[in-house]
Amino acid sequence: MTEKQEKIIQAALELFAREGYHATSTSKVARHAGVSEGLIFRHFENKKGLLRAIIRVGEERLQSLYAAIVLESDPKKAVKKAIELPFTVPESEYGFWRLQYKLKWELPDYTPGKMEPLRIALSNAFEKLDYASPKMEAEFLIHFLDGLGSGLLKNDVVEKEKLRQHLLTIYEV
Amino acid sequence: MNNQKVALVTGASSGIGKEIAKKLLSDGLVVYVAARRVEKMQDLESLGAIALKMDITSEADIIQVVETITQENNGVDVLVNNAGFGSYGAVEDTSIDDARYQFEVNLFGLAALTQKVLPHMRGQRSGTIINISSMGGKMYTPLGAWYHATKYALEGWSDCLRLELEPFGIDVVIIEPGIINTEFGDVMTGPMMERSGNSAYSKLARAMEKSAQESYEKGSGSSPTVIADTVARAVRMKKPRPRYAVGSMAKPLIFLRWLLSDRLFDKAVMSQVK
Q1: pLDDT per residue over A134-168, tens digit each?
Q2: What is the ipTM of this complex?
Q3: Is B32's pLDDT higher than 80?
Q4: What is the pTM of this model?
Q5: Which residue in A70, A74, A128 is closest to B252 by CB distance?
Q6: Distance between CA A165 and CA A171 in Å, rounded?
Q7: Can you tell me the distance from the alpha carbon of B193 to that of B210, in angstroms, rounded to the nearest whole number?
Q8: What pLDDT is stored for residue B1 in this prediction?
Q9: Is A25 on the interface with B (CB under 8 A)?
Q10: Which residues of B are designated catalytic?
Q11: Which of A85-89, A109-113, B49-53 has the highest mean pLDDT?
């Protein structure tokens, strides 16, 4: 991605999240990014294309975060890495992720299938650890971590470190 | 003449091949097992298998094996191309002769054997060819250039073979095992360290050695029986799937590779060998 493309995406991310996707025009994004509106159309076709590009950036960051879990062959370590994932996101990135969470609701054809490798990997890990319903355990953990992620982003989790320790104890990892 | 299917399993002296042979025997097939180390197949012989000495890189051996089976049992109905190994080491450190040998075993030997069993299968308008590939046919690991080259090649080769043989009623099935508890890890790391353990790539080689040991020694891999069960199921099925990804890590890793961009996957894989 070129520097200008990144600028456009950053500007759009901020405006979409602050003022809403529908209320934000591409001309406003262009002004905010300091580029011509034509450049936005050239790179992203239209406003929807821009939204898709933003979501894609978030998905790619998320994928590179959870890839380490999928590549982990030791089941205990995999579960541990999964639990620790929301806690490892640095607070400096909270702004980015807050906007991503918000925008998830704006995209009509948002596809949760992007989490599938993590789902299979966790299910396999729970299977190796002899859990009775590995698939459901994976499902539960993923949704729990998703909720925990929102909580962390909203600064709603008061004792982060204690909670992390508590989770690791529950899962015996 | 009976109607028992006749199977030939290559690389049956250990690991996945041995388990496949056992499973097909218990399913009631006539099972020929072939490998260089014929003495390591005595256990299979006592279970009823017929062991033949075969070096997959020797055309004379291949011809001998197929002729024996043709004389004794008409021909091969189920061919399980299992013989193979992983030759690791940096591209710069691996001689082209070693690279060629990797291809001889994992692709050309397998291809030569397949050619020889096809006339019988075409003649009876049925047969099953099962190629044991690897999740390494769909994704890659550091210092595995020649290994992955053979497995990527086997994937494409098998896809084309499936198209060619479909009109003759012959099924071609690709199996992509994940991490399976076999000798694979040891066979892979020894030569890798010899080649790259003291070269410009030594740091990466040591990291790969550690990662392989962790994957293969802690029992986090799957039992070879999961592959054997899949093979047996594919043999029984009227219309087997073209591909099965089976065993620890296989499905999520193949999916991850498919989902991620090249750069992202590079980063993810390299983050594991630090």
Answers
A1: 999 999 999 999 999 999 999 999 899 999 999 99
A2: 0.76
A3: yes
A4: 0.88
A5: A70
A6: 10
A7: 11
A8: 45
A9: no
A10: 13, 133, 147, 151
A11: B49-53
- B271 contacts A116? CB cut-off 8 A: no
- In tens, the pLDDT along B197-226 reads 999 999 999 999 998 888 876 667 899 999
Place of tokens 């456009």: A8
Phi, psi at B58, each rounded to 5°: -105, 115
Average pLDDT over every residue of B131-156: 98
Which residue in the set A60, A75, A116 is minimally distant from B255, CB to CB?
A116
> Which residues, in sequence order, are CB contacts of B14 under 8 Å at separation 6+?
B35, B37, B40, B182, B183
CB contact under 8 A, B268 and A71: yes
Cα A12 from chain centroid (whole Å): 17
Closest of B236, B238, B239, B235 to residue B80, by C-alpha: B235
Amino acid in the structure at residue A24: T
Enter the tokens of residue B68.
């024996």
- Grouping H, G, I as helix, E, B as strand and the rest as coil, residue B4 is coil
Nearest to A74 among B214, B265, B269 (CB): B214
Share of chain A above pLDDT 70, in %: 97
Map tokens 């355990």 to a residue.
A137
- What is the nearest CA distance from A19 to chain B, expressed in angstroms? 31
Residue identified by tokens 């998703």 is A146
Given an 8 Å threshold on Cβ–Cβ distance, is A73 in contact with B214? Answer: yes
Q: Say yes or no: B263 contacts chain A, CB-CB below 8 A.
A: no
Q: What is residue A69's predicted lDDT score, i.e. its pLDDT?
A: 92
CB-count burial class (<10 Å; 0-12, 13-18, 19+) for B167: exposed
Q: Which amino acid is at B190?
A: G
Residue pLDDT, tens place only, B97-115 = 999 999 999 999 999 999 9
Over range B135-153, report the average pLDDT.
97
Say whether residue A49 is in contact with chain B using an 8 A CB cutoff.
Answer: no
Chain A nearest-CA distance from B108, in A, is 31
Interface check B221 vs A, CB under 8 A: yes
Outline where B27-127 has alpha helix (H): 42-46, 59-73, 96-103, 109-124
Q: Are strands B78-81 and B50-53 parallel, antiparallel or unpaired?
A: unpaired
